[in-house]
Amino acid sequence: MFTESLGRRALRRTIAVADRFAAPHGIDRYVEQIAPTWSSTEVRGRIVDVDRSAPGSVLLTIEPNGNWTGFRAGQYTQLSVEIDGVRHTRCYSMASVAGRERRFLLGVKAHPQGLVSRWLVANASPGLVVGLTPASGEFVLPDVRPERILLISGGSGITPVLSMLRSLCAEGHTGPVTFLHYNQSPEAVLCLDDIVALDHAHPNVRCIMLFNELLSEAHLDGADPQWRAADAFVCGPPGLMDGVRTLYEAAGAPERFHNEAFTLTTFVGEAGNVTGALRFGATGIEVASDGRTLLDQAEAAGLSPQSGCRMGICHTCPRTLSCGTVRNIVTGELTSDPGVDVRICVSVPVGDVEIDL
Ligand code: FES
């Protein structure tokens, strides 16, 4: 996406040499004592501003180090923070104009069970240095912008869609852009003032907020009577995304539907219905499975297996399946082969299971 300068490449070579002399910890561990965001290879960022104007959420302004290579509208980064001495990683989408700006915005909503999101909403403050990964994700605006665009989000799904809206406005996109957002109340909407300002400043942009409403075809008809000819970019609860997908399929335009895939679609019908014993290998701990993910059940049993994104993306959590069958809740795929590594954050037991923890 962005090419590395010659100077930076030369610096990397010098650092690689210095790194060998700084073994076993590498040069980063020494320099970060003086300059916490500096790293020869890792992406890190310093929080320079926090905005808690939307209750239950925080909007972080982050200044990344030189290893950050920018992002496309709709992408996310994996943010790491240390909480009580343990490093935790979660995915958050950028909410600002895409590109390689000096700073970018991340929107974080506190989820009731979300350790990291609740911690950030309560504790994030200017000066805090966080770990980041290069931006990733396939939920992006295509390079050749569709002529007609429909952006739809629900709750915290607003962040990647907001980046798309801001980026389209910033680049002077002239085609019709309709933004439909579902939330509980105006107070809960991240950056509501900015959205209203974009609506007023751009005649081709129409922003509609719906509170305590469920998706209906009438909403789309009211927002843009020609929505069937628009490319839809959707992020939010699974019910919202499935609903829009169904409408586009019924309209004979499924190829115009695009959604954020890293939001987990869980097999709700099976959660809690699958019985069996769940054993955690050498620990000797055995519990009656409650149908949740192996990671959730391990933590509920007092264990602390390594984990990161908890969405099947970062590959921090794979553990070996000793026996039994597990289902991947993202793909629905069943795995029964002993000795295979499974991502415990997105795997639920189906019957008796033993996992090597
Ligand atoms: S925690 Fe990231 S893949 Fe499981």
Count of helix runs: 8
* Ligand set: FE2/S2 (inorganic) cluster
- Kindly name the structural category: alpha/beta
Low-confidence stretches: 264-272
Q: Shape from CA axes?
A: globular
Into which percentage range does the β-strand content fall? 25-35%
SSE order, one letter for each helix or strand: HHEEEEEHEEHEHEHEHEEEHEEEE
Rg over CA atoms, rounded to whole Å, is 22 Å
Tell me the helix content: 10-25%
Tally of strands: 17
| Terminal residue distance | 39 Å
Mean pLDDT: 89
Describe the sheet with the most strands. Answer: 6 strands, mixed
Provide a brief overview of the structure.
The protein has 357 residues and is an alpha/beta fold. It has 8 helices and 17 strands.
Task: Please specify the SSE layout and strand pairing.
Elements: H1 6-21, H2 26-31, E1 43-51, E2 57-64, E3 76-83, E4 86-93, E5 104-109, H3 115-123, E6 129-132, E7 149-154, H4 158-170, E8 177-183, H5 192-201, E9 205-211, H6 217-223, E10 231-235, H7 238-250, E11 257-259, E12 277-280, E13 285-288, H8 294-300, E14 318-328, E15 334-335, E16 341-343, E17 347-356
Parallel strand pairs: 7-8, 7-10, 8-9, 10-11, 12-17
Antiparallel strand pairs: 1-2, 1-6, 2-5, 3-4, 12-13, 14-15, 14-16, 14-17
The structure holds FE2/S2 (inorganic) cluster.
Residues 307-310, 312-317, 343, 345 line the site of FE2/S2 (inorganic) cluster (FES).
